[in-house]
Amino acid sequence: MAETNSVSDEVFNPPVSLQAQAHIKTMQEYEELYRESIDDPESFWKRIYETFYWKSPPTGPFLDYNFDIRKGPISIKWLAGAQTNICYNILDRNVENGLGDKVAFYWEGNNPGDDGKITYSELLVQVCKFANVLKDLGVGVGDRIAIYMPMIPELTVAMLACARIGAIHSIVFAGYSSESLADRILDAECCAIVTADGVWRGNKLLNLKNIVDRAMSLCEKRNHLVNKCVVVRHLGPKCENLVDGMISNNLCEESQLGKRPVHGFKISWQDGRDIWWHDLMGTVDSVCEPVWMDAEDPLFMLYTSGSTGIPKGVLHTTGGYMMYATATFKYTFDFHPDDIYWCTADIGWITGHTYVTYGPLANGATSVMFEGTPFYPDAGRFWAIVDKYKVNTFYTAPTAIRSLMKFGDEFVTKYSRSSLRILGTVGEPINPEAWLWYHRVVGNSTCAIVDTFWQTETGGHVITPLPGATPTKPGSATFPFFGILPTILSEEGHEIKGTGEGYLVFKQPWPGIMRTVHGDHERFETTYFKKFPGYYCTGDGAHRDKDGYLWITGRIDDLVNVSGHLLSTAEVESALIEHHSVAEAASVSHPHPIKGECIYCFVTLKEGHNLTDELVMELKNKVRHKIGPFAQPDFIQNAPALPKTRSGKIMRRILRKIARGDRDLGDTSTLADESVIDVLFKYRAQDA
Ligand code: PRX
Questions:
Q1: Predicted ipTM?
Q2: Count of structural domains, the chain
């Protein structure tokens, strides 16, 4: 395998066969459209706007914004006053346009052989029914609904039902702990939650309902009542209760409980509050008029970690997000109607929102929805599924690629994969070695690779190659998507022209950008617009090379990107100091060969405590239980004291170096006590 650095300048041209039929075939075509999207956003986006149904047109300007905090509050409005409904556009209109019998999702369960499918018209019926269920439960425009579900079609049904009636969905990844779920329910003041009894992930059985129950009682203790909890019976035992044969036909012949015995699987239940999904869906009307929403009405919120405080409820609105999800899906994946597309992300993350649900459905695509993991029953599962459904476009995370590489090529090469055309990555920087493996082994050197850089906040891809046009370099996300004007700034806020490295910022709004942080517009302004007035600050660093290619260098704040999931070091620290033995804690990001980054913690223990192996385990578990399994630190080291400035601020820059065993600490003159450094090196985790 080639060395990381020596290969990074290699250029890969778009595959000729793909280029011939691509929407954008050359860099020249890209550049012309790109110029228009920057110089005249209205004329560019109007063409996308016109592909949708609008009950009424905008009442004011197409785009109205203030990106400069010095001139007043930050505000971004696309198409204000226009009335539409995203659910109507992505379901009813597709059905009206003859796609009713087209498969919207092939559903592939955790166990090979558990599968099902749902067409556009079936999906529409389910969505209308669940929208009526929500209305019967008293849910109306602007109400927040929490969703904590596995990757099953009902998750899409629930989110689109919210969108149909103007309720705001707040999906929480079903790997978060009860406490994290409770924090999010409370912040959003959700009146109802939709969940499932449980789910298998690989060999692990998760009791989702019990996690939700604990979250609801935590909310109750903090004076917030979740009135209704709708529960999908996913694990059986009585599959005949499921309506319309929509879900996993195999499961219905023989319950999963029967197939893979679940000893003592029980869920708790509170009559009046908890209701089975199938009981509600059995009798409800299957027609539901969409509620016409303003283009700037909220569509959903999704929580993402912040450097400080509780996670931020990133708020996306209706019209702009609809245009952006649709356009990025079409161009980045060069979508054509006969494509079979598969994004492996969980809908609980933004990637699943935009590129499992909204983007593909808006384009009338057929997608695969996968419940399981890449390693179950073995490390060939992804490629078995690619062959089973003849997937053309496959979209996953660098962490998944790196972990599959480790199992060897045979798990890949024993499958044909001949349907593959485009391979995408998202969520974290991809190292050139993993990029090349993806290209050569998975893609047989015939596929285009799209390394898509974006964020929960951006709503969709912002820096990405276009598969038919962009010559790619392994590890570079290449060039901006239409409407995105990136700039690299120095620490002092000067624009770096030509080659150079600095803060990645965007100079003007695009339709999919978040509009606010739920309930805290000031936090929105402070986080993204204060450091560099006039720019949206991504919080990532970037480097521009001599050919103008952008290379994302990673977070420049205190967020850690573990396997593509952002976590704040502050969240981890607050979990650690809840343990009775911990006086103080600091955590930093640390390189990890598979996860990209992992969490390395320094703990100062209270008098009388020693950092035994047992205590290390307890502390790791503490974080795991408080946040979720994916947040578990990899390393915990003893820190009799932490390196601080005279004003008491922890110097994380130094801690990162200590974790890496790097004695080149730079300027340490601002440290209150330099002697802590040697002590910390002494206790450094040996296997880090
Ligand atoms: O640091 C960047 C990294 O993931 C962050 C956004 O995380 P999140 O909001 O959870 O959304 C993830 C899915 C869009 C970014 O600030 N990131 C995302 N994609 C890439 C990336 N870093 C490098 N290259 C990427 N392609």
A1: 1.00
A2: 1
Cβ–Cβ under 8 Å, residues 350 and 155: no
Q: How far is the CA of 456 from the centre of ligand 1 (A)?
A: 8
Model pLDDT, residue 412: 98
How many angstroms separate the Cα of 665 from the Cα of each of 171, 297, 560, 603, 670? 42, 49, 21, 20, 12
Q: pLDDT value at position 154?
A: 97
Q: Is 244 a residue whose pLDDT tops 70?
A: no
Please report the atom of ligand 1 found closest to the CA of residue 453: 26
Choose the weakest-confidence range: 141-155, 161-175, 256-270, 379-393: 256-270
Instruction: Return the pLDDT at 308.
Output: 81
Nearest C-alpha to atom 22 of ligand 1 is from which residue?
Answer: 428
Residue 296: partners with Cβ closer than 8 Å, 6 or more residues away: 77, 78, 79, 80, 317, 318, 319, 320, 515
What is the number of the ligand 1 atom nearest to the C-alpha of 565?
10
pTM of the model: 0.93
| Residue 575 resides in a domain | yes
Q: Is 643 part of any domain?
A: yes
Distance CA 341, CA 360 (A): 8
pLDDT band at 257; cut points 50, 70, 90: very low
| Torsional sign, CA 417, 421, 426, 428 | positive
Tokens of 536: 């949206």
Protein residue whose Cα sits closest to atom 2 of ligand 1: 428
Q: Partners of 551 in the beta sheet?
A: 543
CATH number at residue 667: 3.30.300.30
Q: Is the dihedral of CA 457, 655, 587, 562 positive or negative?
A: positive
CA of 537 to the centre of ligand 1 (A): 13
pLDDT category, 263, cuts 50, 70, 90? low
DSSP type of residue 71? G
- With residue 395 as reference, give the H or E element that holds it: strand 393-396
Choose among 401, 456, 455, 454: nearest CA to 423: 401
Domain that holds residue 572: 563-683
Kindly report the length of the chain: 688
Roughly what angle, to the nearest 10 degrees, separates helices 178-188 and 208-221? Answer: 50
Q: How large is the average pLDDT for residues 457-466?
A: 98
- Answer yes or no: is 549 within a domain: no
Q: Between 41-49 and 27-39, two packed helices, what is the crossing angle to 10 degrees?
A: 100
Ligand 1 atom nearest residue 456's Cα: 9
- Report residue 564 as tokens: 């593509």
Mutate-to-test residue for ligand 1 from 396, 454, 536, highest number of ligand atoms within 8 A of CB: 454
Range with top average pLDDT, 196-205, 519-528, 568-577: 519-528
Ligand 1 midpoint to CA 453 (Å): 6
Distance (Å) from CA 56 to ligand 1 centroid: 35
Whole-number pLDDT of residue 670: 87
Please name the residue that has the structure tokens 């009046």: 272
| Protein residues whose CB sits closer than 6 Å to any atom of ligand 1 | 304, 350-351, 426-429, 451-456, 477, 538-540, 552, 555, 561, 566
Pure H helices in 421-462: 432-437
Atom of ligand 1 nearest to the CA of 454: 14
Task: Please name the residue whose Cα sits nearest to atom 26 of ligand 1.
Answer: 453
Provide the pLDDT confidence category of residue 264 given band limits of 50, 70 and 90. Answer: low
Strand, helix or coil at 589?
strand
Q: What is the mean pLDDT of the chain?
A: 93
Closest residue by Cα to atom 7, ligand 1, is 455
**Residue 652 maps to a domain:** yes
Measured from the Cα of 566, ligand 1's closest atom is 10
552 CA closest ligand 1 atom index: 23
- Higher local confidence (pLDDT), 6 or 241: 6
Q: Is the pLDDT of residue 256 over 60?
A: no
Give, using CA atoms, the residue closest to atom 11 of ligand 1: 455
